[in-house]
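User: Please fill in residues for this 229-position structure.
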C-alpha cells in the first residue's frame, strides 16, 4: 500500500495543490484544516508523513510538531511562509525533518517527501533508518553495518547511538554542536568539546566497522552524515 501523507494546511488552495501533486505521485492523502484536527487524524490514521503549516487555527504548527515528537518519530516537513533563520532553526530543533518556505514549487515538496521516505525503511513508524551502509534501529537501539559479505553490529554507547540516530534522520544536513547538544544531551549542561569527543569516538567506530567517510566534519559549523554515492 502507498504511503499516507497528512497535509495540515488551513489555506484551502495550498492544501488542494499539495493534495493533487501528492496523489499524482501515487501517495494517499488526508487533509487537516487546523492543528487539533491534524493531531486527531495522526492519532487515528498513523500517517507515514506530515506536511505541516505553522500558522494554523486551534493549535499552531509549533505546538503540533512538539506533540508529534512526544508521540514518536513520524517524519514532518514544515511548509510555511515563515522564512527567518530562527524559525527554521526552531523547527529543526523541535524535530522537523525538513523545512520549505512558501511560495514553494510543489514538485520540490514531492521530491523532499520521497527522499525522506526512501531513507526510512521498514515499518511506517520510522523505527529503522538507513544511511549508506549503516542501518539504525531506533526501537532496539542497534546500529549495524550492512555489506555484501554480511552484517556487523556496532558497539556504541547510548550517547553515540543518539548522535548517530539523530543525524541519520536527515543525511547530508549539517548539524551544529548546539543542535546535537540539545537533541542528544537532554537537560544536561554540556560543552561543545564534549560533543566533539563523542563524535570522534563514533567516527572511529564507524570507520573500523566498515563505513569510512560517513561522518564528516564541516569546519566551523558542525557535522553531517555523507553516504557514499
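Assistant: Residues filled in for all 229 positions:
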Amino acid at each position: 500500500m502507498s504511503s499516507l501523507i497528512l497535509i495540515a494546511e488551513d489555506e484551502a488552495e495550498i492544501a488542494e495543490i499539495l493534495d493533487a501533486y501528492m496523489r499524482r505521485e501515487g501517495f494517499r492523502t488526508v487533509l487537516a484544516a487546523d492543528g487539533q484536527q491534524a493531531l486527531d487524524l495522526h492519532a487515528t490514521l498513523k500517517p507515514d508523513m506530515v506536511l505541516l503549516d505553522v500558522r494554523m487555527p486551534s493549535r499552531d504548527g509549533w505546538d503540533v510538531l512538539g506533540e508529534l515528537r512526544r508521540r514518536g518519530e513520524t517524519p514532518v516537513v514544515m511548509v510555511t511562509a515563515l522564512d527567518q533563520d530562527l524559525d527554521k532553526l526552531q523547527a529543526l530543533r523541535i524535530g522537523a525533518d525538513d523545512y520549505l518556505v512558501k511560495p514553494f514549487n510543489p514538485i520540490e515538496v514531492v521530491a523532499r517527501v520521497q527522499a525522506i521516505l526512501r531513507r526510512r525503511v521498514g515499518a511506517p513508524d520510522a523505527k529503522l533508518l538507513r544511511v549508506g551502509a549503516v542501518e539504525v534501529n531506533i526501537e532496539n537501539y542497534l546500529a549495524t553495518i550492512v555489506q555484501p559479505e554480511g552484517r556487523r553490529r556496532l558497539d556504541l554507547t547510548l550517547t553515540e547511538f543518539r548522535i548517530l540516530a539523530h543525524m541519520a534522520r536527515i543525511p547530508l544536513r549539517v548539524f551544529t554542536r548546539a543542535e546535537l547538544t540539545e537533541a542528544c544531551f537532554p537537560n544536561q549542561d554540556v560543552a561543545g568539546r564534549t560533543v566533539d569527543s563523542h563524535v570522534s569516538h563514533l567516527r572511529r567506530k564507524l570507520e573500523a566497522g566498515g563505513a569510512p567517510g560517513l561522518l564528516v566534519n564541516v569546519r566551523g559549523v558542525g557535522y553531517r552524515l555523507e553516504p557514499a554515492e
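For context: The domain at 128-225 is CATH 1.10.10.10 (Arc Repressor Mutant, subunit A).
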